[in-house]
Amino acid sequence: MESMIELLRKRRSIRSYTPEPVDQESVALLVESLLRSPSSRDLKPWEFIVVDDRQLLNGLAQSKAHSASFLKNAALAVVVIADPQKCDVWIEDSSLAAILLQMTATSLGLGSCWVQIRLRSHASGKSSEEYVRELLGIPQHMHVLSVIGIGHPNEMKKGIPADQLEYGKVRHNGYHEPWR
Fold first, then answer.
1. Which residue, of 87, 102, 110, 162, is most buried by count of CB atoms within 10 Å of its CB?
2. Where do the H-state alpha helices sit in 36-159?
3. What are 111-159's pLDDT values in tens digits?
4. What is the pLDDT, as a whole number, of residue 137?
5. What is the pLDDT of residues 5-25, one digit of tens each?
6. By CB neighbour count within 10 A (0-12 exposed, 13-18 middle, 19+ buried), where does 137 fall?
7. Which letter does DSSP use for residue 127 in this model?
8. Who contacts 37 (Cβ-Cβ below 8 Å, separation ≥6)?
9. Residue 2: CA count within 13 A, CB half-sphere
C-alpha cells in the first residue's frame, strides 16, 4: 500500500479517461472515503450524488462555459453538495470530502479532476449551481460546490518534482521568516 505522501506526489488532475467503467467495489470505496471525511463539529453538512448515467454525465459536462466538457467521458462523477444551514463552514467541510475522494481515486489507480461549480456561470447566463440543481433535482436549500470527474486515466502525467515545489510560500514562526 502506498503512503499518503507517495499518493500526493503522483496525484494530478486527469481529464481524459478510457471507456472502461469503474467497478462497483471501487465505487463503494470512493463513497466510503466521502462518508469518512472530517467535518467541523461533526455536523456533516455535505451530501453527495454519484452519477454514472451517460446522459447525466453529458449534462454535467455542460455545467459551465469552460473546463467541464471532459465529464462527458468520465466513468462517473460525484456532485458535492451541502446544506449551509447545518454548518457555517460547509465549503471547507465539502472541500475536505472532495480532496479525500480524489486521493482515494488515486490510490485505486483512477484519475480524477475537480470542476468548480460554486460561483461559476453556465452558458445560458444562469449560474452553474442552478443548472446542476435543475439537472439533478437538487432541493433549493442545498448548495452545489463542485463535481469530481472520475475514471480510468487515458493520459499519464508525472508528479511535480520536489525541486519545483514553491517552498517560498511556506513561512516559519511568522510571515517574515522563510521556512527554508
1. 102
2. 54-60, 90-107, 128-136
3. 999 999 999 999 999 999 999 999 999 999 999 999 999 999 999 999 9
4. 98
5. 999 999 999 999 999 999 999
6. exposed
7. B
8. 46, 93, 96, 97, 100
9. 15
